[in-house]
Amino acid sequence: MSQSLGGLGSLAVSAWSQEYWHRQSRDETVHLGFYSAWKGISWGVGYYYTRASGQQKNDRSWSFNINIPLGGPLSDSAVSYNTTSDSNGYTSQQMSLYGAVPTRPNLFYSVQQGYGNQGRGSNSSASLDYHGGFGNAQIGYRHDAASNQLTWGGAGSVVAHPHGVTFGQTVGESFAIVRAPGAAGVAVQNGNNVHTDWRGYAVVPSLTAYRKNVITLDTESMADDTDVDQQGQTVIPGGGAVVMANYQTHIGNRVLFTLRNAQGPLPFGASARLVEEEESGNPSGGMVADGGQVYLSGVPQEGTLAVSWIVNNQSQSCTLHFHLPDNPQQSLNTVKTVSGLCQTR
């Protein structure tokens, strides 16, 4: 059990006993501990008493540990120290430095140095652990008086689907494939460090079966020339199912068109669409507002805009051929403006 002592910390007490009927003996363990924290620094002391059947001498041990978070460029790191002594005269000490690599929050490191008396000698270890959007990888090294060990490993998934192959983290029973063609490096808010690959595909490693799951793209992580029609998609997977979350992407310029014909600005409510995008099966369009203005994303440097509307039950249409001026100093995120005369078809 544990009892809070307010701002002082907490006191923990536990006891365990096991009795053997067939040999009339008993094993017992008692633990007493006090734990506290101050300004992010946590520490604790513990006492352990163990009486084991078949041993002539009961064992008592004491422990002390402290954990100190660091600041500055190592604000995601901490130093810890731990020491243990027992009634047999054995003492061990261990110092550790661990945390996330600065500027790389998905890369974790740990460095440890320890020492034990009674012939145990010193030991040291170091490890790196990478948690990426396309899987995890680990590498570690340990040295002590008896051996040297080098370990490494990795885990992830390779998912084949109708649009190709996508690498991802280790998947659960139900998971999803994000399809956002051309939207590379976009973070997916479902999961840790999940983002689209160079083609715009990602694996969301775990979903709740038979429930609504909203898969959301982080629009702040999109490139300046990338837009999506809808930020989130709702999917309801079955048990053990793989579902596809499709996003309509528009890769290109953001443009505000001001359109007119021989009679003046094009009418409010007219429908405008990019001919090239429509032919590629990735339509980009919008509705003309006041003053003949319409905003479109995913606009190529050169193309054709088709506009249609109805007047007195008669269909009207026109086209505008445009070429956006090249301006290397202008950000892709800048909304360009184009004014033009829409030619009647």
UniProtKB/TrEMBL annotation:
InterPro entries: Fimb_usher, FimD_plug_dom, PapC-like_C, PapC-like_C_sf. GO terms for cellular component: cell outer membrane. Pfam families: PapC_C, Usher. Residues 256-325 form the PapC-like C-terminal domain. One of its GO terms (molecular function) is fimbrial usher porin activity. GO terms for biological process: pilus assembly. It comes from the Bacteria. This is Type 1 fimbriae anchoring protein FimD. It comes from Klebsiella pneumoniae. The gene is fimD_10.
